[in-house]
UniProtKB/TrEMBL annotation:
It comes from Rhizophagus clarus. It is found in: Endoplasmic reticulum. This is Glucosidase II subunit alpha. The lineage of its organism: Eukaryota, Fungi, Fungi incertae sedis, Mucoromycota, Glomeromycotina. GO terms for cellular component: glucosidase II complex. Keywords: Endoplasmic reticulum, Glycoprotein, Glycosidase, Hydrolase, Membrane, Signal, Transmembrane, Transmembrane helix. Residues 836-875 form the DUF5110 domain. PROSITE patterns: GLYCOSYL_HYDROL_F31_1 (PS00129). Gene3D superfamilies: Glycosidases, glycosyl hydrolase (family 31), Golgi alpha-mannosidase II. Residues 395-721 form the Glycoside hydrolase family 31 TIM barrel domain.
Length: 981
């Protein structure tokens, strides 16, 4: 076995590469190689995928009838749970099923074997759900219940949700206002491979050959061959020479889930695919492979592909005019999803509008049980809330985390860090965090520092911290197998390492060379690891240091598909196969808890993770991994982040500039301009790339980048307010067009423009040399250019000229946006700055918005120590009131320490004539009205705001704007401004 040190320029270690290292030990320069599709399995190379697709093919033949029936007289309805027994009439295996009617218009279906040979994994709920969901007692049995093999209940406060269980064959319909929205087993694909003994020859599932294979393998389809194949992959499976021992044999589960009348479905990240998901069973413009959910380290990944990437969220949202519905397939084993659409479903479904399109999905996982949640909306925002009520809302980050992050693999020494930090100041560019990749450690032993290059880590962090900035250091989940390394030793002594199939500690290869993996699913490991971040334990760390969890799919360079073998053993003997997709999240969870624990009172953590699952939003941010410095990857970042955001994980970003390769300056500028309008904003670059700190390009590029980053900082109060919203109601931070305009079918698949909150419309520019673009203005209301404040002429698709200094951004009429317009070096430096309110009136002359503020650091806000204002402009009156009813102002610690925060300016767009005067007063001092200074398009006032409108001259700014100067109003108080005509 090779124990050589891995050189600092090592890039990507496939097994072959490791062998190379082992034999040469010296590595100096390695060429970056592109993603190798042959490293990853296709459906046809995956036995349970083949079997389930084949089962589906058989099921759609005319003669097929699903063999699963409800056993007579077994249905029981009690406390919001309908339970019963199913039988597979072909092999006589019994199952138990439950349909739970839950609070908030959610339903849940669970199916498991009645007498499994041994327990099947049902542990995902402990990781993904915040608590055991509460059943509702708001339901009524319908008169038909029990008759004609149908059980039917209406539920929800208004009884307008309905569940109908058909007994023969078993299928379940969920209805909203009497229209079916989700149907389980409508196509009869339900397939539950019961656990069996290997020598039980009668009870083996049939291996059916899928159509695509028949075509390619036509010539060899002899009876003999078919015979051989029927056993293939059931009890052992080999891929690229790696054997999966499959001690339990076949144990997959599959189910079809139809969305009648829904032409669009979204979600199931992570894929580099379209926002509106594609069909997957071949044909023009569709995929041949199902969407795959299996957390993998796929660097330099292909675009427009259903192949698996770093994270998995088995959440799918269906949307049509008037209603949305969604499901969560709570299973963390490898999962594939086929999608097909059909027109004119009359013959297929028992209902449906003749001309509508329906979407039919087919889900299959390698192991576990069927546990599916159905979210019955009816609106998308209801669904985001319903999903968040189960899996948790996104954690409110510290405010620095939404500033700009500067990363590269690697900043090479503390001197390098100091220079880069200084570079930002010299060049007048704000930033909040500088990052350290794996080279900062002593020999890839996380929690340690390179003794020479980072000899004074505390001093380095304090120097950064003094300027109000932070640092992030990487902590990966693999542990160098080195008896002198305390993390390894403690983990070994505590017996919390992942084991191989024979119960020995599993060893594999990663950055440190020979490594072991802590079993994050072991509660003891969670507890132990979360203590490793105590300042006294993590030597050289300070409160300015935060954490980055990478490689947590987990990435194992010599493992099958560059990850862990499926037959490894975790806590309580569960095979890795059952929980692969949540392994990375369990690590993220322990790290995040570690950062919370390290201070008293607790501070909010910041941990970036590459791997994720349903529930990861509670632990921090994620990013889309190893993208490439090209225009297509820049374009792909929008649908990817929109998809991840609507799947409950809104704090996400893509490496600005592209990880692999060297972006030309124009691409880099466009990437910064886009990244500034995405939730997590971090530039990152591969170790082999040229340095690309913003000032290295010279003007005009450096100025463009400076402007883009400054725009981010101006809008930080707006971003923070939307983050707070996401943390309480699950609304995505950046929102696809269909979320903001749910009834406009034209934009259901639109993915190249999006909203931040409901107010700012952003259109990234993703082509070289582009001088015009088309922006779609939905909703027949006013829009304003965000920089010039000019009204957009026209609606629907409008051609817009573009320049190099900015990307198109528009304010939707009806919005009020809080900004801070003074340029400083970091978000903390802006902490006490006054606010500018940007009021964009709609056609009715109205606008509304909010502003949320707290200490940006601790959990004091949970006790009511925050400011949350509700701004409303109607009939010429602009009123600010408080949402905070939790504590009195006099008891509010945030208000007490920020009592002088004030509004320094109000800009009102869409007013075409000047009021006679404008008066302002506090609502509790109505007799103390003051006349406010203002101008309509006044040149001096415009001069005062032009610096915030990057690269725009005074002449370009609309004159139809009112600027109220220093209204002398405090943020904390209720006030009114009246326009007097
Ligand atoms: C892979 C990550 O995706 C990348 O961002 C990081 O720089 C390298 N690992 C090295 O840690």
């Amino acid at each position: 076995m090779c124990l050589g040190t891995i050189g600092k320029n090592s890039i990507r270690f496939t097994e072959q590469f490791f062998l190379f290292i082992c034999f040469t030990v010296i590595i100096t320069n390695v060429v970056v190689s592109a993603m190798k599709p042959q490293d990853f399995r296709t459906c046809a190379q995956t036995s349970f995928c083949r079997r389930n697709r084949a089962y589906a093919d058989k099921a759609i033949s005319n003669s097929f009838v699903s063999p699963y029936n409800v056993v007579k007289d077994t249905i029981n309805i009690e406390n919001g749970i309908i339970s019963g027994e199913l039988i597979n009439t072909e092999n006589k295996v019994s199952f138990v099923f439950q349909v739970h009617l839950l609070m908030n218009n959610i339903a849940r279906i669970k199916i498991n074997e009645k007498y499994p040979l041994k327990p099947r994994y049902d542990g995902v709920k402990y990781w993904s759900l915040i608590q055991e969901p509460v059943n509702t007692l708001e339901y009524t049995e319908n008169p038909s219940t029990g008759k004609d093999g149908v059980t039917s209940l209406s539920f929800g406060v208004d009884r307008n949700r309905k569940v109908i269980i058909y007994h023969t064959p078993f299928h379940v319909e969920l209805l909203v206002n009497d229209e079916p929205v989700i149907i389980f087993n409508n196509r009869g694909f339900f397939n539950f491979e019961h656990l069996r003994k290997k020598d039980d020859s009668v009870n083996q599932p049939e291996e059916l050959i899928i159509q695509s294979e028949i075509n390619t393998e036509k010539e060899i389809q002899t009876e003999e061959k078919k015979e051989e194949r029927s056993e293939e992959g059931l009890w052992e499976e080999t891929f690229n020479g790696k054997i999966d021992s499959k001690p339990n044999g076949p144990e997959s589960i599959g189910l079809d889930i139809s969305f009648p009348g829904f032409g669009h479905v979204y979600g199931i990240p992570e894929h580099a695919s379209t926002l509106s998901l594609k069909e997957t069973r071949g044909g023009d413009g569709t995929y041949n492979e199902p969407y795959r959910l299996y957390n993998l380290d796929v660097f330099e990944y292909d675009l427009d592909s259903p192949m698996a990437l770093y994270g998995s969220i088995p959440f799918l949202l269906a949307h049509r005019k008037g209603v949305s519905a969604a499901i969560l397939w709570l299973n963390a084993a490898e999962t594939w999803i086929d999608i097909v659409k059909s027109k004119d479903d009359k013959s297929f479904l028992s209902f449906g509008k003749p001309t509508s399109t329906s979407t039919h999905t087919h889900w299959f996982s390698e192991s576990g049980i069927i546990d599916v949640f159905a979210f019955l909306g009816p609106t998308t925002s209801d669904i985001f809330k319903q999903y968040g009520s189960l899996t948790g809302f996104t954690a409110l980050p510290q405010s620095f985390a939404i500033g700009y992050h500067q990363c590269r693999w690697n900043y090479l020494s503390q001197g390098d860090v100091a220079e880069v930090d200084e570079g930002f100041d010299v060049n007048d560019i704000p930033y909040d965090v500088i990052w350290l990749d794996i080279e900062h450690t002593d020999d890839k032993k996380y929690f340690t520092w390179d003794k020479i290059k980072f000899s004074e880590p505390e001093k380095m962090q304090k120097n950064i911290g003094r300027k109000g900035r932070k640092m992030v250091a990487i902590v990966d989940p693999h542990v160098k197998r080195d008896d002198g390394y305390y993390i390894y030793k403690e983990a070994k002594d505590l017996d919390i390492l992942t084991k191989d199939k024979d119960g020995k500690v599993y060893e594999g290869w990663c950055w440190p060379g020979n490594s072991v993996w802590i079993d994050w699913t072991n509660p003891k490991a969670q507890d132990w690891f979360s203590k490793k971040f105590a300042f006294i334990q993590y030597k050289g760390s300070t409160e300015f240091l935060f954490i980055w969890n990478d490689m947590n799919e987990p990435s194992v360079f010599n493992g099958p598909e560059i990850t862990m073998p499926k037959d490894l053993l975790h806590y309580e003997g569960w095979e890795h196969r059952n929980l692969h997709n949540l392994f990375g999240m369990a690590f993220h969870s322990a790290t995040s808890q570690g950062l919370i624990n390290r201070t008293t009172p607790n501070h909010r953590p910041f941990v970036l993770s590459r791997s994720f699952f349903a529930g990861s939003q509670r632990f921090g941010a994620i990013w889309t991994g190893d993208n490439v410095a090209n225009w297509d990857h820049l374009a792909a970042s929008s649908p990817m982040l929109l998809t991840i955001g609507i799947s409950g994980l809104p704090f996400s970003g893509a490496d600005v500039g592209g990880f692999f390769g060297n972006p030309e300056p124009e691409l880099l500028v466009r990437w910064y301009q886009t990244g500034a309008f995405q939730p997590f904003f971090r530039a990152h670059a591969h170790i082999d790339t040229k340095r690309r700190e913003p000032w290295l390009f010279g003007d005009p590029y450096t100025s463009y980048i400076r402007d883009a980053i400054r725009q981010r900082y101006i809008l930080l109060p707006f971003w923070y307010t939307i983050f707070q919203e996401a943390s309480t109601n699950g609304m995505p931070i950046i929102r696809p067009m269909f979320v903001v305009f749910p009834d406009n079918e034209e934009i259901f698949a639109m993915e190249d423009q999006y909203f931040i909150g409901n107010s700012l419309l952003v259109k990234p520019i993703t082509n070289q040399g582009q001088t015009t673009t088309e922006v779609y203005f939905a909703g027949n209301d006013l829009y304003y250019d965000y920089y010039t404040f000019k009204k957009v002429q026209g609606s629907g698709k409008v051609k817009v000229d573009i320049t190099m200094n900015k990307i198109p951004v528009f304010l939707k009429g009806g919005s009020i946006i809080p900004r801070r317009q003074r340029f400083r070096r970091s978000s903390l430096a802006m902490y006490s700055d006054p606010f500018t309110l940007l009021v964009a009136l709609n056609k009715k002359g109205e606008a509304a918005g909010t502003l949320y503020l707290d200490d940006g650091k601790t959990y004091e806000y949970q006790k009511g120590h925050y400011i949350h204002r509700n701004f409303n402009f109607t009939s010429g009156r602009f009123i600010s009131t408080s949402f905070n009813k939790q504590v009195q102002d006099s008891e509010n610690n945030y208000i007490k320490t920020n009592k002088d925060l004030r509004i320094e300016r109000i800009i009102v767009l869409g007013v075409d004539r000047s009021p006679k005067n404008i008066i302002g007063y506090y609502n509790d001092l109505i007799d103390d009205k003051k006349e406010l200074k203002f101008s309509l398009g006044g040149i001096d006032d415009i001069k005062g705001i032009v610096s915030a409108s990057i690269g725009v001259s005074v002449e370009e700014i609309s004159k139809d704007i009112i600027i109220i100067r220093d209204p002398k109003l405090l943020v904390k108080r209720d006030w009114t401004i009246e326009f007097v005509n």
